[in-house]
């Protein structure tokens, strides 16, 4: 019983010690509220200057339109994360950051995508980046490698190609480049075998890509012999790498 009374006395004593500071604490709270209200209402925090960096392909005007920065609303009350997400919906934008620079400036930093290949399906062709995001329609004079996909693949700008065939062609192309074999076109035959067309029109029939590295090691020596002997070859069949076959025109 005595212990309980002692505890109550200690508690009351602590409260009593804080009582002289109630007025200053309340005053600080009022000042904070007033300062916050002033900051919200102060026109000095309304964005007046917007800087865009990192863009070379995407027009500044398109980035600003997607950002949709409100000129008469305090920039601290505007959602910069939502702005960045809207900007990243632009096909050529890989990443965007929106930063406030007090008192009245906003900086938009973007990272753009680079065309990696042209993808064709039916009579449509589009440029894609390394992530297989569709960037735009492909021009007729593109010098990029062309991946031929089955009919019916949607190629709308901003879309990511997730079909296994598109991913496989991208990966096989990178394996070929690493082996210094540079095709101008990649596709699959009706059996799912990889077919690479080289500059000059010679086709390399590679079949499945399980032993692609071994097959690619044969391409340059065989093509060198074809050129040296001026043989009119339309295709090199490496589906069975132990027994390469030349198909003549």
Query: What structural class do you assign from the helix and strand content?
Result: alpha/beta
Give the CATH architecture of the largest domain.
3-Layer(aba) Sandwich
Q: Any idea of the CATH topology of the largest domain? A: Rossmann fold
* Mean of all residue-level pLDDT scores: 88
The total of helices stands at 6
Helix content: 25-40%
Helices and strands, in order, run as HHEHHEEEEEEHEEEHEE
Number of domains: 2
Give the CA-CA distance, first to last residue. 110 Å
Record field, number of beta strands? 12
Which overall shape is indicated by the principal axes computed on the Cα atoms?
elongated
CATH C-level class of the largest domain is Alpha Beta
Concise synopsis of the structure shown:
The protein is of the alpha/beta class and 249 residues long. It contains six helices and twelve strands.
Describe the structure.
By secondary structure, the protein is of the alpha/beta class. The protein folds into two domains: 46-112, Ubiquitin-like (UB roll), CATH 3.10.20.310; 117-248, Rossmann fold, CATH 3.40.50. It is 34% helix and 26% strand. The strands form two sheets. A nine-stranded mixed beta sheet has the order 6-5-4-7-8-9-10-11-12, with helices on one face. It has a three-stranded mixed beta sheet with strand order 1-3-2. A hairpin with a 5-residue loop joins strand 5 (124-128) and strand 6. It is elongated and about 100 Å long. It starts with a helix and ends with a strand.
